[in-house]
Amino acid sequence: MLASLAAQASARPLALVWHASAWQQHPWMLWTASLVHLSPAHLLVNLGGLLVLAVLGMFLRAQWPATLAVVLAWPLGTLALAAWPQVRWYAGLSGLLMAMLAVLAVHAWRPGSRMAAAVLLAALVLKLLAEAAWSQPLAFDPLWGFNVVNAAHLSGALAGAGCACLLRAAWPATGSGSGSGSSVPVDER
Length: 189
Prior knowledge:
By secondary structure, the protein is mostly helical. The protein has one domain (2-175): Up-down Bundle (Rhomboid-like fold). The chain has eight helices and four strands; from the N terminus they run αβαααβααββαα. It has a two-stranded antiparallel ribbon. Helix 3 (40-59) runs parallel beside helix 5 (94-108), helix 4 packs antiparallel against helix 5 (94-108) and helix 5 (94-108) runs parallel beside helix 7 (150-170). The longest helix is centred in the C-terminal third of the chain and has 21 residues, at 150-170. The protein starts with a helix and ends in a 14-residue tail after the last helix.
């Protein structure tokens, strides 16, 4: 949160924004773009979303594989924006928030929380279908006064889901969220 505020107040925030034509020379943009916001309201809404996802992660008892999946998905979701030539630059946390939501949905897909996972997945899929980033990667939103990068939502969600699924397959015992360290069921009669 403090890093986001520092980036917002930076004298050169454009150096932190992801630019399709410059990220190869400035690879930190894959991470820092999420820290720059286009208005104070943009920052506050994204920080609110981050708070909701943090509470949800605590409720779902997300463990280190979920955290690692988010860390890996962060630059990958931003990098995937290069697939859309219309997206020349990107700033904001929403792509990373979609990655976090996807990671939590994959993490929650286990006995005892599959209903929560289904609700998270349904909400995410409905949002992505409504935005249709594959055909409309950018959409001007008059409430925000700037283009919303729908492609960032889609690329973040795909990167988050992909990383979470790969880590879950690699470490099924810890990826289950059971906390037991074992994927073998124990009969405690």
